[in-house]
Specification:
The structure is a single chain. The chain is of the alpha+beta class and 313 residues long. Among the domains are: 65 residues, Helix Hairpins (Orthogonal Bundle), CATH 1.10.287; 146 residues, Heat Shock Protein 90 (2-Layer Sandwich), CATH 3.30.565.10. The chain has 5 helices and 7 strands. Strand 6 and strand 7 form a beta hairpin. Helix 1 runs antiparallel to helix 2, helix 3 crosses helix 4 and helix 4 runs antiparallel to helix 5. The longest helix has 122 residues. The chain starts with a helix and ends with a strand.
Length: 313
């Protein structure tokens, strides 16, 4: 009886101890779980904070990249503007030199013949006095022509008429008519291809450019056998290219660029001021186009090209 009681007591204590151990283990597990949850929460908060910092860093990096890109763009624009200003300074220097040189020539003529005029008038030599007056009048006309051409050059780009569609055929025919009126005895055959393409631009300026090109061709073919000028045009890529071809004296390749300079003339006995090709080039430039010449050399004739971009659709 006593032994059975002790065994029951031992079993009770064993059960109690097992329960206590289980409770302790459960408490420890709950504590560990709470710690894990707290660590997980701290980790999640740290991760969110890191993501926020990363997002901020990304935004800052993007802003920095934009700032650098803008700085580089402004630097390129400044460099381009500096190069443009340097080019304009060079053009102005050449312009001032050329104008002063070409205007000085008639002034020297006037000054010289005024002295002779005084002497001949004092001597009562009527014929020589008239001759002196004619030379002075001729020098005045040259200076007047130079000044008028300079004024016209300054207007190009400032005085712009509304753009309109016009055919190269119409421009060439009207230009040929004007040249014939100014040079009725030129004796040059001007052949204009039919159905030439159209262009869009300042009609007055385009006609002016065409007239200068045709007149230039006529001037330099007048002294050759069977003088002839041909005008044609075609669409080439994204441009409409007009060509004025002559069988005249030709141009040495060394001067293909120089002839478009202000008052530059390869021959001084052809008349004019030498500004016509400069005007044509400037008119092409304000339309976004270009002008150039091709010639194999002296005696081989020349072809002048006037190209304008096709209108945007």
């Amino acid at each position: 009886m006593g032994g059975a009681t002790r065994r029951q007591t031992d079993m009770s204590w064993t059960l109690i101890l097992s329960i206590l151990v289980a409770l302790v283990a459960l408490a420890w597990a709950l504590t560990l779980l709470g710690r894990l949850r707290a660590e997980r929460q701290r980790f999640a908060e740290a991760l969110r904070s890191a993501e926020d910092r990363t997002s901020g860093a990304d935004a800052a990096a993007a802003d920095l990249a934009k700032a650098i890109e803008e700085r580089d763009r402004l630097a390129r624009a400044l460099e381009a503007k500096g190069a443009e200003m340097a080019t304009k300074d060079e053009e102005m220097d050449r312009f001032v030199y050329t104008v002063s040189h070409d205007l000085k020539s008639p002034l020297i003529t006037i000054q010289g013949f005024l002295g002779l005029l005084e002497q001949d008038a004092a001597a009562g030599d009527v014929e020589r006095t008239k001759r002196d007056a004619d030379r002075i009048r001729g020098a005045v006309d040259v200076m007047k022509g130079l000044l008028e051409d300079l004024l016209e050059l300054s207007r190009i780009g400032r005085m712009v008429n509304p753009p309109e569609e016009v055919g190269w055929t119409v421009l060439a025919e009207e230009a040929a008519t004007r040249v014939a009126a100014e040079r009725p005895d030129h004796g040059v055959e001007i052949e204009i291809a039919p159905d030439l393409p159209t262009v869009v631009g300042d009609r007055f300026r385009l006609l002016q450019a065409m007239q200068h090109l045709v007149e230039n061709a006529v001037k330099f073919t007048a002294g050759v056998d069977d003088p002839k000028v041909e005008v044609g045009a075609e669409v080439n890529g994204d441009e409409t290219v007009c060509r004025v071809r002559d069988n005249g004296i030709g141009i040495d390749p060394r001067f293909h660029t120089k002839i478009f300079g202000l008052f530059d003339q390869l021959a001084s006995d052809t008349g004019g001021t030498g500004i016509g090709l400069t005007l044509a080039e400037r008119i092409a430039a304000i339309h976004g186009g270009r002008v150039w010449v091709e010639s194999e050399g002296e005696g081989e004739g020349s072809t002048f090209y006037f190209a304008l971009p096709l209108p945007a659709h």
